[in-house]
Amino acid sequence: MKKSLLLAFFLSSLSSFSLSVQADDACEAVLCMFSKMEKSAVSECASAEKEFFGINVFEDDDDEKFDAEKTLEKRQEFLQQCKDADKDTISKILDNFGRKQGSKE
């Protein structure tokens, strides 16, 4: 019984760590995509931009047909993980970059 409780505690703390890292990544992406939108891109933002533009959704029946609306939804879900980000800022980022196809890498 003690082992089960300990394992449950360990797994829950691991999952919260993972969510925290994702939220940090999302906040970095918000800052970097906002700076890109404002034409003041920063070289340190390459990985955050790659992560953002790496979110691409293609239609189920055709791996080559980009689905801009579903991509927008997924990118919105990602950016909203940053609880400190202003909703208007996220909205502006998505208006500018939310539907653009990124690299297939």
Automatic annotation (TrEMBL):
Keyword Signal: yes
InterPro entries tied to this protein: TrbM
Keyword annotations from UniProtKB, A to Z: Signal
Signal peptide interval: 1-23
One family name in Pfam for this protein: TrbM
Protein name: Uncharacterized protein
